Amino acid sequence: MIRITIQVLLIMACLVALWALAPRVREALHPPALPMVSPNATSVANSAAPSLPELALPSFERLTHLLNAPIFFSSRKLPRAEAVSVTAEQDGDREEKARDVARLKLFGIMMHGNKRRAIMGAAGGAPRWFDQGDTIAGWRIDRIEPGFVVVRKNGRTERIDLYKR
Question: In this predicted structure, what is the pLDDT of residue 134?
């Protein structure tokens, strides 16, 4: 009997609390509508409000320096290129050698135990499998490593990466 009386008293206390809080809850759920004011109307409340400054975006010309600064360098300046004196003959040889090795493409590498193979192709040719010691377009494959192949031709050694560094 005492247990039921306590439960009834608790329920009644909760109902009284809800009744006391009801106006606040109703107000929070449904705030009163603000009065409509025409844009041309002036009032004491409007005149007391501080005026905000007009915001404008800077002109594009003022932002061009940001576009010209490289974002991937901490100094926001491009690294300086070193001047190197090269004769026309050396320059032509260097370009020819670069074009020669650039004709080789590395498409993939397979490594299983001690067996290493590379899928390579020369310009215009279909890719095919090569082992260490094989020759492609005059280049001998010296080493096949994870991510790159080392080739040799006329005493010159070049590294061909699977992915550009």
Answer: 94
Domain count, the chain: 2
* Residue 42 lies inside a defined structural domain of this protein: no
What tens digit of pLDDT does each residue of 5-39 get? 888 888 888 777 777 777 776 676 776 666 666 66
Q: Report the CATH number at residue 139.
A: 2.30.30.830
pTM recorded for the entire structure: 0.42
**118-154 burial by CB neighbour count: b if 16+ within 10 A, else e?**
bebbeeeeeeeebeeeeebbebebeebeeebbbbebe
Residue 18, domain member (yes or no): yes
Q: Is residue 66 part of a domain?
A: no
Question: How do residues 67-92 score in pLDDT, each as one tens digit?
Answer: 666 666 666 665 565 555 555 555 55
